[in-house]
């Protein structure tokens, strides 16, 4: 009976989260806009999103409850991207209009000709979408621009780096996320305090940009947002997902390592005055991709933190070889079994404060104690 109640709760909570993006139209259907959190600099900002056409709710469907959530999930499954819609984005005195592509996606690269306020990091841009035969839609999107005191940019993988594998084991991930207790969820122990410390820096006031990349599809964007909020991990633009749509022109999703490398190149070009830390895991291609970046951008990458997610001796030997190859550079590759080892190195290099290090140690120790008591 207890297992049944847990799974019943899991289904209800998962259904509610999956239905959440549909609530904004109040059941009326028609054109819907979903902008993803943006990022940029005082020179240029970037915002991506998607415009959908979706069905209306039937009159017999109640306005709340499990039946409403189920109906909204069905509407989400059958909604379609709306091509050819005009998307106008306005931020301060800066404005640009773009057109959605065949799948309804839009990608705004807005040059900043009117300077943005430097006393805030998160800016709010207005979006207006118009399409033939549809009522215009107005919405807003948050955009992160590092403040002048930011001294470092952090680029982190998500899968098996921040959270236990969430793409290959989706059902297990969702069960952990919405049913199990907070310390049993999918985040690695100490991840929240580690990323908070990296965000604040050695001064505890740095507000560094943290940019996350996942090899998962855009469809899990809301799940990742919920995961970050539930686990108190600093929110950054989770804009680096891949479109997994199958078509005759693109029958397979793009290779994850090529996707990641292009994004890192873009970030280093955008924040060309900031050094960088790269964080990944040993299970995929992160050490190889990151080592290439170090060689291609001399002096820019200060540290590579690789979370060890398996005990494969051959894999550890390969990573040790990469570490030896980087010995004559300014970058150190650290293979770490847990968040504490990463935090200790970051503190020794003055990337995080003593307070941040202690917070990581405290959270990891607490997590291990709770796991041992179960």
Report the count of strand segments. 14
Structural class: alpha/beta
Order of helices and strands: HEEHEEEEEEEHHEHEHEHEHEHH
Sheet-strand content, in percent, reads 25-35%
**What sort of overall outline do the alpha carbons produce when their principal axes are compared?**
globular
CA radius of gyration = 22 Å
Sheet with the most strands, sense and barrel status: 8 strands, mixed
End-to-end distance: 20 Å
Helix content: 25-40%
Low-confidence stretches: 181-185, 242-254
Q: Round the mean pLDDT to the nearest integer and report it.
A: 82
> What is the helix tally?
10
Please provide a written account of the structure.
The strands form 2 sheets. Strands 1, 2, 3, 4, 5, 6, 7 and 8 form an 8-stranded mixed sheet that branches. Strands 11-10-9-12-13-14 form a 6-stranded parallel sheet, with helices on both faces. The protein is built from 10 helices and 14 strands. Helices cover 34% and strands 25% of the residues.
